[in-house]
Amino acid sequence: MTLFVTVILGLVLVILGLSAAWPLWAWPTTAALLLVIALVTHRVLAPEPEAFPREFRPEPDLQFPEPQRQEQRIAHVALPSSVADYDFSFSATVRWLVLETAEDAPYINPAGLAVDAVLQRARVVTAEQPPNRSAFVQHQLDGVLGMMRPDSGGRIMAMAQDVSLNLPELDRERLTKLSNVRKDEDVWEHERNYERSKRAYLGDDVLKDTGTAVVWWLSRNDKEVEGAVDHIGLLAQLSAAANNESVAPVFEHLVSPPTAPYADVRAGHHSPPEWEQPPDWGAATSSKGAGPDTSLDSFLAWFGFAPADPDLDLFAERLIHLAHAHGKSDIVDELRRRFAPARPATDDAEETTAEPEE
Hints:
Blueprint: H1 2-20, H2 26-45, E1 71-80, E2 87-98, H3 110-126, H4 134-144, E3 149-150, E4 156-166, H5 169-206, H6 210-220, H7 225-230, H8 232-242, E5 263-264, E6 269-270, H9 281-286, H10 290-302, H11 312-325, H12 329-339, H13 345-357
Antiparallel strand pairs: 1-2, 2-4, 3-4, 5-6
């Protein structure tokens, strides 16, 4: 500040000397006067020396008393979810601040008001969320309850920290089982719809009639046009069976008669063995040579007896008794000749003598 005043005053004196055309002896006098004014100004503006050095003075006490901590821990409080009977378990540390009110305001329980305010805010969030999302809802509550907000009466401001939200283990297991059942039902429903759609496609479209079935076969085997003719009879049978109808007369000549399930590998087609043919009763009476043997084999096959059947001898004995009863001696001789190796001669003689008495 002294330097600033000295410079300003010097400039003023210089301007005055130049304007008034001071003589040469006046300039040294002016400089001396300016120096005296600077010393006086420095002495006036300089601060008084301190009685004690700063390093020896005590520091001012800037520490304020720590305010009383106002918080309360709550644990395992049931909060509703969006599903009935499945409640969340809520735990948190509630903190509050008492607001200033009029002197005549009623006394309050700050802890109770703060806990109630936090639970009401948490209840609004949990009631809209499913119970199987407890971890997600916990993060939501951290954000919703992490800010001081006044209660409904305006007496306190409350918040919550260290929030914990979970679902009981039994309820978690029940929800897992229900979820698995719903998933299985969805899969089963889709499979049933697929089967229903497939049946409708085959019954109402593909096998609606023989012509439609033939066109469907050609669309799946477009390079085998000649083979479609060989399948017309089979397709006619399938379409008739699908509609509970008989084969159309125009396709009856293409339908092969049913055959027994025996395959002649060398010939390449199915044919029943000779001994399973139905008996030819005319061949039995036409001649005494090979005809009766063939007829007897067919007769036995018609009854379901194979040549190596262990019950065939017993059945032959019963046939001999029946032929004796009706007086068919030629058939009795034929049966004895056919089954003689399997039956003792004494038995035949006893039966021959015994039959006339019957």
